[in-house]
Amino acid sequence: MSVLKGRKSSVLRFDTEKQILSIEDHLRSYRMMQIVLLCSSILWCTVIIINDISSFWLGFLIGSYIAVALFAIYYYLFKSSVVKSIPFNEIEELISITLFSKNDRRLTLKLKSARYRNLIIMNQSDINLIIDSFKEMAITVRERTTFNLLPLNF
Question: Any transmembrane segments, and where (predicted)?
């Protein structure tokens, strides 16, 4: 049995009786794998810096990589969420992000706990159906463009 389950779309189920959104995807295993890879690369970069730094620029590049990796780990652990069931009252809004073209959009749930839950949608034609479903549940939908993609702008 492999840890890599293959990338698949998030399966969303709206339970209107219990007021819960259930999400089935492999985001938790992806995040754990990313965190393990980042931690191991930080460890090996630290070993390289401690053992031998032959030039200032190599040390600067490795130090910059370590800083970016630490920021990514912080974001994954404290700003991102991988929960599988979310009550409707915990969802602040659905954010639809248009990347490079109208046919390339991503969906993110902003939770009231100041965390974000990414939805993996492989089929772009399903996005409009998902947005309509959230509007039916009286959840705010916000459209974002390429100019405000930075996490600081959320």
Answer: 32-50, 56-77
